[in-house]
Every structure is written in C-alpha cells, then in structure tokens.
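Table S2 (continued). Query chain:
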Amino acid sequence: MQSTIVMVNLFGAVALLLFGLSLVKDGVTRAFGARLRAALARGTNGPFRAFLTGLVATLGLQSSTATALMTASFVEKGLIRSQMAQIVLLGANVGTAMTAWIVALGIGWLSPLLILAGVATHRLSRSSARQGAGYALVGIGLMLLSLELLGAATEPMRQSQALGAFLGMLDNALPVAMIIAAGLAFASSSSLAVVMLVLSLSSAGVLSPVLTVALVLGANLGGAIPPVITTLGSPPAARRVTLGNLVVRGIGCLIALPAVGASADFLQSLPLPRQNLPVDVHLLFNLLLAMVAWPFAGLLARTMNRFFPDDEATETGPRYLDEAALALSGATREVLRVGDLIEVMLMRASEAFSKNDVNELGDIENIERQVDLLQQEVKIFLSRLGRDGLNEEDGRRSIVIIDYAINLEHMGDIIEKGLCEQIAKKVRGGLRFSEDGYQELKGLFNLTIDNLRIAQTIFVTRNADLARHLIEVKVDVRHMEKRSAERHLERLRDGLLESLQTSSLHLDMLRDLKRINAHIASVAYPILEESGLLTESRLRPPG
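Corresponding output:
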C-alpha cells in the first residue's frame, strides 16, 4: 500500500510538471507567438544569431520540440538555410538545459506568488496577450511546485530494497539505463521532465553519480525523437532538420557514455552543489555538444541532404483534399498551406527590397502559379461538397474557408504584379530610397508578415481576441500608410533628390502593402460577427 501511494505521488508530480510546461508554452505562444515566429525566421542571418535565437525561443516556449518544429517548417518554406537551422537547434538544446538549471536553483518558495500573480493577470486582463502572460506565470509556478512534490515523493524511495536492487542492476548496465531514460523522455515529449525526475531521485540519494549521468544522457537522446516522429510526413527539407538534431545528440551520447564515470568524478570535484548534479550534467553536455557540433553544421546539412534529397518533382497540387476523410479539416490544412506560400512570397519580396537583389524574386512567379492552382482546387472541392449536402454550421465554415483562400490569392497577385515589379524597377534602375522612406517601408513589410502569421492562427483557432487585435492593427496600418505618404510629400517639398527619384515607387508600395493588410484582416470579420463584436458600418450616427 505504501509503495502504491509513493508511485501515485511520483506520477502525479510528473503530470503536474508536464501540465505546467504546457501552460507556459500555450501562454507564451498566445502572448508572443507571432513575435517569436518572426524572430526565429529573421534571426538566422549568422551562426551566433541563429544559436541565440534558438536559445531564447526555447527559454520562452519551454520546449525545444516546439522550437525544432517551427525551425523545420521555416526550412521547408525556404526561410531558413539548413546549416543555420542546425545551429538554431543547438541553441534550443542549451535553452532546455538552462531551464532545468534555473528551476533547480531552489526558488520553489516563489511558486504560490507566481500562481497568484498569473491568475490575477489572467482574470483582470482583457487582452489576449496579457491573458497568455498570466497562463505562463501560472505554468512556471506549477513547475516549481511540482519540483517540491517530486522531492517529497522520492524521499521514501531511499528505503525501498526493490528499487535499490533494480538501480544496482542499472549501475552495471549503463546503456540500458540510457535507453530507459530516452524512452521516458520520448513518451513524455519532454527531456526536461525526465531530468527533473532524475534530479529528485538523485537528491533523495537513490541514484549513484554514474547512473545519474547516464540517465541524463538518455533524457537528451529521447528529447530529440518527438520532432522526428512529427515531421515523418513532411517534405524532405523539414525531415532533414529534425533528423540532423537527433544524429547530433545520438553521436554526442555515444561519445559521452564511456566517459560517464570520469565525468561524474570531475563534476563532483567542482565547487557545485552535489544535489544539482543532474542539471549541471545536462547543461554541460549541451554546451560541449554545441561547441563541438557548431563547426560541423554545414557538413551535417550537406550529409543530410545527400541521404534525404528533395523530391525530383516538386509537389504543386493539393495534399489534403480527401472527401473520405474529414473534408473541412483537409480543406483548412490546404488553405493554411496557401497562406504559407504567401508568407514565402512576402519574405522573398522583403529580402529583395532589403538586399537590393532581384535574384530573391526568382521563384515568385512559380509560387504564385501554385497559389492559384491550390485556391482553385479548394473552391472546386468545397463546391462539390456543398452539392452533396452540408449541415448549416459546416456550410458557413466552408464559405469562410473559400473566402480566405480567395483573399490569399488576391494577396499573391498584388505581391507578384505589384510589389515585385516595383522592387525590380528600383533595383534595375539603380534607385535609392531616402533613409526615412526605406525604414517606413521596411517597417510596414515586417508588420505585414507578422499580421499574416496572426491571420493563419486566427483561421485555425477562431480566437475572437486575436481577431479583434488584427482589426485594430489594420487601423494602425492605415494610419502608418497615411503618415508615411504625408512625410514622403514633405521630403518632396524639401527637394530631397532620393525622394524625387522614387516618389511613385514609394507611394505604390505603400498602397500595395495596405491592400495586402486589408485582405489579411478579412479572416477576422466572420469571427467577430459570430461573437457579436462587429457593427455593420464604421459611419458615425448623424447628430
């Protein structure tokens, strides 16, 4: 009976830790998700920035798996180079280890305060971002509380003869111990949870230092498996990223395993708290792995490309339109894919504008052709479903899907026939914007890309708070466009040569970016209308 209570307490504490991690991830995604995605997509211009971006993103999301999947999706879209992606994931691994080290600092007394502050922030805030921050605070508080519960749950294990015998066997079978820990990390989709469990057992005096190191290595290995499983159905570009990370961790564990005894002795000789050995090992292993693997990131990317080459024929047709499956869900996924293509077009146009390089626009025409094809296939598919009969709710949803697909197609037309032609004219004519004009347009480009990512989230989640936020940002865009046009005219009156040469280009690009944002915001209107938050007219009543 006593052993049953101990196991229930132990698994309950682990479950609370996983729930806390989930709350932190959901809260941070809700509060800063678009900014994190934007930072991850843009923060890979150099290896140091890529490493730092992966580290910071993982500290925010409390999940190297989430960072790995976002990075893989950006590589698939061509927004991040494979070499930089591998360095991002090295940073993500260090970020997870730093989280474990911070949680183990003995700040459990902050748990009630963080939970109270998080609940108050969530209840008293009306904005989605602040409510997300409240969720994240509650999650951090629960993580700290779970660590206290883990310590209490593992304390009675010191007297367990059966557990002592089992762990004694593992002391003589370190590869088996590593595999068991890897299995636990894979099953829980969290290397952090397993490291925290090992920390609690180690603090209770149940584990030997050598076994502790082996279990931490296993947690690192197992934590790299979930992203690989998740991307099995993705294109080769995405699979190469997650498989490369697994290969790096696997090689690191195989090299480190024979030296676990020396590693444990070395760490115990340092002036560090003995009870924190698991998190010290976790952090040191990932730091050393990053230092060693960093110079080989390019070689790893080329090797993975050789073993997992791109498909000879790029798939341009629909992937998810299947009437035998969940039809509307498939159509939704297909339209999200169209949105991803529009994001690639915007990013390429933005890069061409920033770098003054027309080569960045090379694939735009082909991508736009794919956008046209996919939105047409979605419309035909949903029209056919409508003829076969849909209930009222599914009928409304199909109209929303078609409407969003049409708006995305219009965005593609504006990017290809408007923005890209204007950028090409600027580059080929050797024209330069004034510094103020350049910054105004660049800022509007970045805001447009962020808004598209928010729209994609709204399209899936139908979150009314995010929808309201997007409409508010649309108004901000209108004001930005008006102010930028006014400032441009002021520069013309001042006789600034650069503004005189680029006048029509500046105003045309402002107009096109404003039009794109108007199409982006269209995804929010049906949701606000359903919620009763939308009025029929912006006109003020007379009198």
